[in-house]
Amino acid sequence: MYLMSKIKQVLLVLKPGVVTLKYPFEPHPVAKDFRGQPSWDHHKCVGCGGCAAHCPARTILIRDVCQDLRVMYYDGSRCTYCGRCADVCPEDAITMTEQYELATNDKNDIGVNMELFMLTCQRCGRCFNMETTNMIDKMGLRGFKYDNLETRAVISKLTTEQFDPKMLEESDRFKRPQK
Amino acid sequence: MDILYVAVNILVFLLLAPFFDGVVRRITARVVQSRQGPPLMQTYYDIFKLLGKQNLTPGNVGFKIAPLVALASIISVIVFFPLGHEVNVLAGYADIITVIYLLTLGGVAVLLGALSSKNTYASLGSSREMITMIMVEPVLAMTFILGAVKIKSLGIGASVASVAGGGYGASVIIMLVVYLAALQAFVGRQPFDIAEAEVEILEGPFIEFSGPNLALFKYYMLMKQMFYAALFVVVFIPAIKTGYYGFDVLIQLAFVSLVYVLIAVLGSTHPRMRIDQAQKFYAVLIAASLVAIGLSVYGI
Amino acid sequence: MLTIDDVKKQLKDKYQAAVKNFEAPYSTRLFVDIDKSKVREISNEIIKMGGRYLVSVGYDNIARDKTLGLIHNFSLDRDDLFVCIRTSAPVDNPEFDSITPDIPNAGWSEREYMDLLGMKFKGHPKPKRLILADDWPEGVYPLRKEVPYNLMPPAAENVAYQLDEAPEGCTTIPVGPFHPTLHEPAHFAVFVDGETIKGCDYRGFMVHRGLEKLCQTQVTYNEIPFIAERICGICGSVHATSYSQALELAAGLKISRRAEYIRTIMLEIERIHSHLLWLGIAGHLIGFDTVFMQAWRVREAIMWYGEKLTGNRKTYGMIVAGGVRRDITPELGDELLGILKTIEKELITIHKAIVGDGSIHRRTKGVGCITKQETELWSLVGPVARARGVDIDVRRDHPYAAYDEMQFDVPVVDSCDVWGTVVVRILETFEAIKIIRQALDKMPAGPIMTEFAEDVKPLQHAIAAVEAPRGEVVHYLITGEENRPERWRVRAPTYPNLQGVPAMLLNDQFADLPIIIGSIDPCFSCTDRVVKVDIRTGEKSRLTKMDLEKISRAKKFAGR
Fold first, then answer.
1. Which residue in A10, A18, A21 is closest to B30 by CB distance?
2. Residue B45 — pLDDT band, cuts 50, 70, 90?
3. How far is C16 from chain A (nearest CA, A)?
4. Are B115 and B126 in contact (CB under 8 A)?
5. B34 and A19: CB-CB below 8 Å?
6. Strand partners, C95
């Protein structure tokens, strides 16, 4: 009984043979619709900010540098590769590539910085403004916490050396900009 | 010139012990677990890597000398080993009692290192190691005694050669089975790697060791494994003498690698036992080996 | 069979004025508003009706009427009914009667709200800190609305959790925070006498990610499924489904039938791979690595299929509020059937090999025993409960998605030990294969997404449960104003099961500890999801190697 079960086990394990790959030397192709690193096509992007609004991990940040220059920064270090940005992009400017070997020493390697020249309004001479007339509101979505490159800088400096009950009152500065 | 044989003993064991471990790892991976597995030389790389790391010692003399004592004890056991069925010149200065003492000394060194590290897991592991030692060493002793009873001598070469030298009687068969059953316990592999049990007590006695100290202990374990595997060949597989020392050694090593294959297959098809279950198992082994001794006294 | 009206009548008759209001938006959910003085009695009453305690939800209502709300949730398994009793206390004196003396499983929930909301529970047997770090300042309750999500008090020195005293004559073995058995940080102080375990104390919640607070303050309804999916590394779809169902209930949205079928298939795919994963881990924990490698080899086929279907081998990202993201085409369906066939064949051989192997029986039979009564008392869930003869399964008792049309058995074993959980899990895998085949067979055509017609109304309560591979997942949702939840409470199956572990460990060998803890398939990060902790400590983390060594040495010697 005992011996039979052991022999059966050995027979069971002999059948499939070696199934693992010599991985780094012998790559395994990924499936067709794999959700790898997202890639941006700056020719197609209109800078609407829909991807930034829908990103669950908040890795896409937007900043209007001046009237007609908008900077979009994709911070790959926090990306969860859910592919939500590619879904919502109205111009199909974002595609999920098959890249998944993204280990790097410098997290800037997997970030993408895009500078978009925006068209200005013919009537008022400015491009639409993300900070005061929130694009997200136009899209019929509410509750979007406006993250820009400056907030990103704030987040990393958030450590407080001394705890002070006043901090709770000062917490307003973490609130999103008022409309 | 005789002293050359001793040098060959030590060299063969020092050089090949990690290789055989690599063989076990490779067989476990390739044959049983359906994966690529590490290269055959992996164990050498491991030891080299450990030798280059920093030694962390929680400041106790016992802790520092324990790995040295362990390695020294196993090397001195190997000195007396009749490799190629050639009893070397030093074997005349010792007998089987010495060998058993020296083997036990290695175990004691492990306990010394474990207990002086004052770690909870280490002490748990050392208590398990102690139980294993007390219950398994008798089987080894009985094997020697079986030969000694037959030839009425405690000399190493004589008693080792005489176990199966006179053909396979009932007592020898029983002893062979008992030795095989205890083999995994001797070499500290599954299902009897209870003292080191990685998922329970994190390598038990060796938990606080690092760098070169750990490398020495690793080497000690590897040499011990090879000693027990080679001892099985010398004791139970009668001498096939070609007349050339080199050939004899090679034939013996071929058998040793077969024993390693057995170790690999047994080790990878069994879950680890609990210490109380293992104790019962060892008790049966001791009883069986006593029966073998009893039979051999009557020449069966 | 009790109906909603029966429950209403019984409560009203017995507790007249204490029961203020009933709310039953669906035939399977009953919300009862009660006076806080009767919490304990009414809870016991529902237990007597055949209720099983699920989880408590505490929430901050200070902005509206200066109260803290508390909801105890119960499931009446035989009657397909969830009963949620809601009560509240003023924020100046937030004291409730503890229900832990009667329902031990409520212990953690109540301790959680002591930490997070500053509630007080009269008569709680162990009012110790559960979730917050030991150096978290007193009087700051992170789940209250006034506290920003990214508040980070400075670290304090020389504070440590006080573990329970070891019983007479026992030594303490620390298992964790890092230990090969655990796979994730958690600390068990195990009291042993020789090798026999005489008790244990648990200090966990070391990997909080603050998901609930984050989702209540930062993101919107549509993004939460992706965050919910990352609550657990193994059973992500379960959380996403449970959240989506709760939201759909709150919004009164009925999603398309095809989407429900696809959800069912995703959940069962997840069950197959999770159970195979567990089987492998269990083998590893008893030192049988071959089982580990072989079970994972079999599992690999379904992982690659997941990648093909959803775009990722584990975090499928398939389930969103209102439906699913990708459709299962006929070709993909056929491929799935082929994969199931090979898995079934291999699993039958593995099953036979395991059942016939005496050496595995030796390590699992008679280990981690607790009786059926104890299991019910601790309200354990999932395979852990089913291995002890407790016949519960959300898929059958509270059908969701397309489970009402599926034919399947719920394997129940009454061996009361770890071996039972092995058997239950293997049999469940076969059932999962059966369910997927039926679902692929019956799947109706139709859209896979249903849009929300209008905004979700604020302050709607909803509770949804989903049977995860490890047990049941409960999500409680209170909808809020800014297109995001007011309160979202997640209860993973490990949360109740981990509380039963000390009972299972009692009088077993220390060598069995890994497999006993492993037998509940613990997922510590599922359990520890609540508080807001930002791990980045800025400048302070930049220590050189020498500094770290100095610190660790100093600590070591100080400890001696």
1. A18
2. very high
3. 42
4. yes
5. yes
6. C120
CA–CA dist A127, A150 (Å, integer): 20
- Rounded CA separation C201/C166 (Å): 9
Whole-angstrom Cα distance, residue A111 to residue B194?
A: 49
pLDDT at B22 over 70: yes
Q: Are C291 and C354 in contact (CB under 8 A)?
A: yes
Q: CA C226 to CA C126: how far, in whole Å?
A: 35
Closest CA to A65 of A149, A7, A141, A147: A149
Q: State the alpha helices, DSSP H only, in C186-256.
A: 211-217, 224-229, 236-251
Instruction: State the pLDDT confidence band at C433, using cuts at 50, 70 and 90.
Output: very high
Beta strands in A26-119 (DSSP E): 38-40, 60-66, 69-74, 94-96, 112-117
Beta bridge partners of C476: C463, C489
- Report d(CA C191, CA C165) in Å as an integer: 9
Contact between C465 and C77 (Cβ < 8 Å)? no
Tokens standing for C363?
């390590």
Closest-CA distance of chain C to residue B223, Å: 23
pLDDT band at B1 (very low <50, low <70, confident <90, very high): low
User: Looking at chain A, which residue has its C-alpha nearest residue B26?
Assistant: A18
| Residue type at position A30 | V
- The sign of the dihedral angle between the CA atoms of C443, C445, C449, C454 is negative
Residue for token pair 């992996």: B42
- Tokens 């299929």 locate to C305
Chain A interface test: which of C159, C213, C219 (most A C-beta within 10 Å): C219
Q: Kindly state the tokens that stand for B97.
A: 């009692």
DSSP string computed for A17-61:
---S--GGGSPPPPPTT---SEEE-TTT-----HHHHH-TT--EE
Chain B: residue whose CA lies nearest to A22: B36
Kindly determine whether residue B269 and residue A10, on different chains, have CB atoms separated by under 8 Å: yes
pTM: 0.83
Question: What does the block give as tokens for B229?
Answer: 């595997």
The C-alpha of B283 sits at a distance from chain C's nearest C-alpha, in angstroms, of 17
Helix (H, G, I), strand (E, B) or coil at C256: coil
Dig out the tokens for B38 from the structure. Answer: 């590490």
Amino acid symbol at A72:
M
d(CA A73, CA A110): 11
Higher pLDDT, residue B233 or A165? B233
What radius of gyration, in Å, describes the C-alpha atoms of chain C? 23
Q: Which of B127-131, B143-147, B236-240, C59-63 has the lowest mean pLDDT?
A: B236-240
Mean pLDDT of chain C: 82
- The secondary structure of C396-461 as a DSSP string is HHS--TTGGG--------B--SHHHHHHHHHHHHHHHHHHHHHHHHHPPP--SB----SPPPTT-E
CB B126 within 8 A of CB B117: no
CB atoms closer than 10 angstroms to residue C516 = 23
Mean pLDDT score of chain B, rounded to an integer? 83
A29: distance to nearest CA of chain C, Å?
11
Across the interface, whether the CB atoms of C140 and A168 are under 8 A apart is answered yes
Give the C-alpha separation, C471 to C483, whole Å. 30
- Cα distance between residue B29 and residue B18, in whole Å: 16
**In terms of residues, how long is chain B?**
300
A38, A86 contact by CB (below 8 A) = yes
Q: Do A18 and B265 touch (CB under 8 A)?
A: no
Instruction: State how far the Cα of A45 lies from the Cα of A149, in Å rounded to an integer.
Output: 19
How would you class C315 by CB atoms within 10 Å of its CB: exposed for 0-12, middle for 13-18, buried for 19 or more? buried
* Euclidean distance between CA atoms B141 and C343, whole angstroms: 50
User: Residue C484: which H helix or E strand, with range?
Assistant: none
Distance separating alpha carbons of residues C214 and C149, to the nearest angstrom? 6
Cα dihedral: B173, B174, B177, B181 (round 10): -160
CA distance C205 to C133: 8
